[in-house]
Amino acid sequence: MDVRKLAMSSVLAALMCLTGMLVHWAPALIPFSVLPVFVYLSGLILGAEYAAMAMLVYLALGLFGLPVFASAPFGGFGYILKPTFGFLLGYVGAAYAVGRIYREGSLWRAILGVLCGLVILYLFGLSYLYMILHWVLHQSTSVAGVLMIGFVPLLFLGDLIKAGIAVWVGQEVVRRRQAT
């Protein structure tokens, strides 16, 4: 076990917890958040296993009741029934994918990793959103309806900007870490 990466994993989990409370809401069911930037950064900085572990710690802290999630009730096991919980599950998969694809110093692998992480995040989030809306809340919905709620308002500008920020900052952190 790499103690340095373990310490950085706990720092990123703590940043996720702090950031989860500082969310700006978009006029949609899905909150606008800077949390994905930290998800992608964790994959770039920590690698696949430690990044996924940091996201699992964040998820566990929230599910055990700490108020670290972005919307009310902010934590607790009942959060599993929220339509947006799939995005939180997607954080684990996205962080792992970014870390698995990225090779230190490669800008193109960073871009590819973050874009794959973005796709995985949406696959988890939108699938879970559909399941909750359809089977738990019994709302008649279609795939197009779910895309209009959870994809279209966010992807075009916001998530691509967040992905670009994560690539830039992640590359800079890795570059500076290699210089020391």
Short description:
This protein has 180 residues and is mainly alpha-helical.
Mean pLDDT across the residues is: 87
Q: Quick one: how many beta strands?
A: 0
Shape: globular
Per DSSP, what share of the residues sits in E-state strands of 2 or more residues?
under 5%
Major sheet: size, sense and barrel closure?
A: none
Would you list the SSEs in sequence order as H and E? Answer: HHHHHHH
State the end-to-end CA separation.
21 Å
Total helical segments = 7
Poorly predicted segments: 24-31
Helicity, as a percent range: over 70%
| Secondary-structure class | mainly alpha
Rg result: 16 Å
SSE order and pairing:
Blueprint: H1 3-20, H2 35-46, H3 48-63, H4 85-101, H5 107-136, H6 143-150, H7 152-179
Helix pairs in contact: 1-2, 1-3, 2-3, 2-4, 2-5, 2-7, 3-4, 4-5, 5-6, 5-7
